[in-house]
Recover the amino acids of this structure.
């Protein structure tokens, strides 16, 4: 792997809640432009890992690095904020600011965090809302948007900040089936323009199509990783095969 | 039966109006300091800060479980004695009798209202949910930005009706200040009545003054609520 391109690196990430160890030392390497898809059974620790990558959860042990900024459990608040500003998160439940319009949701980080002028921020926010197909919803409040539209605002909010990496935690799993497509197609289009992404999802077809790397997690560990073909067709680990068998009905025929 | 002396009643009202600034001073400063303390208590409890959480939990329980009158006595009599007994052993010249009475009263009122306000804010925080706060952190906000941009506008606006009710309680509770001989609205009326025993007229007069002040607070609340609604906040939904 080309070391120069390595952009985000997690090393030995451990996390417990009480006496319950959820992450048992996870290593992850993400290169610029990568679309890393994380798969794994429920309770594997995927969400917890993603939250650690955004430092919404403080890892008990291990290091996180983006470019040359390294943070760990002992880092100062300043360093953590600086680290967080290099990442953005798209949440399963969208987590939009409910009392702000779509436009204000996207502008908030630009104005408050990046200290952009209001009109510049507004221009950028509109550009990104247009990108996710919401050019006619600038002034809508989240409550009046469908789940798919809300999630697209969430994606625009993350994209507009131009972070080094965007983390997606099951961005489509709270959506009605007929709304999944619109969100996935937005995600495909941003993958194509080279945005670095780490995506937790159960959308296997999506993973096969756009993942540059697939990571399989179980029991708080990375079980196996490789390109989509390696994982879906030549899984080496028994736990990977068992998991795939559960989520792909025709899995046994693939191999 | 004694005749109701309207003339005297009006005279008391007139005097009471000149005491309104002191009553408002006590009420508003107690509310502001109480609010700051309440925000700290609510955040500590919401964020589950180890030991402090328990301390504040006990504090809120004590304040809500005892009368304001008792708290006023503690702040007025007991705490100064305790502080002085420590100061006397140092060479600090300061003694608590240098603190103005009205400051002690407003401290007592602030402590009292802080417990109630902290519970309201905590309820607001819980109804706001972790989602929006996490989203704010994830776009790179610092703690103070999150408080300023997310918690204050969302929770505080939603809590306006409850805050207003508490401000009114503080206003009424400030009348206890006459027990420690402060000449705010109630104290003024009582002193006037003690010369001619026309207590009934005097209390009617204070009633009118407090009522008018209360209606004014309600009016201001209404205007703020309307402003918030125009900005897209839904006050009804939450409470
Ligand atoms: N804040 C928390 N406190 C206590 N336990 C937690 C917390 N967050 C997660 N857990 C536990 O950690 C384990 C892993 O959770 P996590 O959400 O990371 O799994 P996941 O792989 O994302 O699962 P899913 O596919 O169901 O979303 C679960 O058993 C969960 O109950
Ligand atoms: Mg999850």
């Amino acid at each position: 792997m080309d070391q120069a391109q390595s952009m985000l690196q997690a090393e030995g990430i451990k996390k417990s809640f009480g006496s319950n160890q959820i992450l048992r030392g996870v290593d992850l390497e993400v290169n610029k432009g990568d679309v890393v898809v994380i798969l794994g059974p429920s309770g594997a620790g995927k969400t917890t890992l993603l939250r650690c990558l955004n430092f919404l959860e403080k890892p008990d042990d291990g290091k996180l690095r983006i470019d040359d900024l390294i943070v760990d459990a002992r880092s100062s608040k300043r360093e953590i904020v600086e680290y967080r500003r290099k990442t953005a998160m798209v949440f399963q439940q969208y987590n939009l600011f409910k009392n702000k319009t779509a436009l204000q949701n996207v502008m908030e980080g630009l104005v408050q965090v990046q200290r952009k002028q209001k009109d510049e921020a507004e221009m950028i926010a509109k550009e990104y809302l247009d990108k996710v197909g919401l050019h006619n919803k600038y002034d809508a409040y989240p409550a009046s948007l469908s789940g798919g539209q809300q999630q697209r605002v969430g994606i625009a909010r993350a994209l507009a900040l131009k972070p080094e990496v965007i983390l997606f935690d099951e961005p489509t799993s709270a959506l009605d089936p007929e709304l999944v497509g619109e969100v996935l197609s937005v995600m495909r289009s941003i993958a194509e323009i080279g945005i670095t992404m780490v995506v937790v999802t159960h959308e296997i077809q999506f993973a096969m199509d756009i993942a540059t790397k697939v990571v399989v997690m179980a029991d708080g560990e990375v079980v196996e990783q490789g390109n989509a073909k390696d994982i879906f067709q030549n899984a080496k680990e028994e736990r990977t095969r068992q998991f795939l068998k559960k989520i792909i009905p025709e899995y046994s025929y693939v191999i | 039966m004694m005749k109701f002396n309207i003339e005297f009643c009006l005279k008391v009202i007139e005097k009471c109006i000149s005491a309104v600034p002191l009553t408002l001073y006590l009420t508003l400063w107690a509310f502001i300091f109480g609010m700051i303390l309440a925000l700290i208590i609510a955040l500590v409890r919401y964020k589950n800060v180890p030991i402090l959480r328990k301390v504040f939990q006990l504090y809120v329980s004590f304040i809500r479980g005892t009368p304001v009158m008792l708290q006023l006595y503690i702040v007025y009599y007991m705490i100064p004695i305790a502080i002085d007994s420590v100061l006397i052993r140092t060479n600090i010249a300061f003694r608590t009798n240098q603190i103005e009475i009205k400051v002690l009263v407003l401290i007592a009122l602030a402590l009292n209202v802080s417990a109630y306000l902290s519970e309201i804010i905590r309820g607001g925080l819980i109804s706001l949910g972790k989602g929006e706060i996490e989203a704010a952190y994830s776009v790179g906000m610092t703690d103070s930005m999150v408080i300023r941009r997310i918690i204050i506008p969302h929770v505080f606006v939603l809590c306006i009706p409850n805050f207003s009710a508490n401000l009114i309680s503080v206003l009424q509770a400030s009348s206890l200040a006459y027990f420690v001989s402060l000449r705010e609205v109630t104290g003024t009326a009582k002193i006037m009545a003690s010369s001619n025993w026309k207590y009934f007229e005097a209390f009617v007069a204070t009633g009118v003054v407090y009522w008018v002040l209360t209606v004014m607070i309600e009016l201001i609340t209404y205007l703020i609520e309307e402003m918030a609604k125009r900005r897209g906040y839904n006050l009804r939904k939450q409470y």
